[in-house]
Amino acid sequence: MSAHRAVTLLAPIVVAVVLGPLVAGVAVGLFAAVSSLFDQLASFSFSDDGVLLVLDVVFAYYIGWPIALLAGILVSLWMMRGRPSALVANAAAVIATAGFMGVAATGVLGPVEQFNGRNNFLFTLAAAIVAANGCWLLTRRFAHKGAAGMK
């Protein structure tokens, strides 16, 4: 295996783990800030929203790294066969989220992840799809060039 091929196959994994939780955390944080901006009963100030944005990103990395890693591996496996697309990125996010949350719901990963797996599936799935689309929009030029150069 050449160095170019190895880098091309590792790139989706690195991008998913580094950018995926960041995109999801920022999206959740911005959604919370905008919803509190338009909520008349909101008790948060803009400084509180900034702190919550940082906490959203930290928790997105804490909870989302295994899902991002699995989704990156799935996209990398797809790149062995053909060029990736937004559909591939979204399918990888759905499969990775369903797989991780399914295992978490069985209790194998501990009681906290069991609770998370049973109660937060749809929220985590939506965040994973937002992260997959964000990563795809940020890296689609490089993904097409890299996959084309592997053949």
Describe what you observe in this structure.
By secondary structure, the protein is an all-alpha fold. It has one domain. It contains five helices and no strands. It starts with a helix and ends with a helix.
Features:
151 residues, mainly alpha
Strand content: under 5%
SSE sequence, one letter per element: HHHHH
Task: Show unreliable segments.
Answer: none
Q: How many strands appear in the DSSP assignment?
A: 0
Major beta sheet summary: none
Count of helices? 5
Mean pLDDT: 84
Rg, Cα atoms, Å: 17 Å
Termini gap = 12 Å
Estimate percent helicity.
over 70%
How would you briefly describe this protein structure?
The protein is mainly alpha-helical.
Helix/strand layout:
Layout: H1 3-38, H2 46-79, H3 86-105, H4 111-119, H5 121-149
Helix pairs in contact: 1-2, 1-5, 2-3, 2-5, 3-4, 3-5
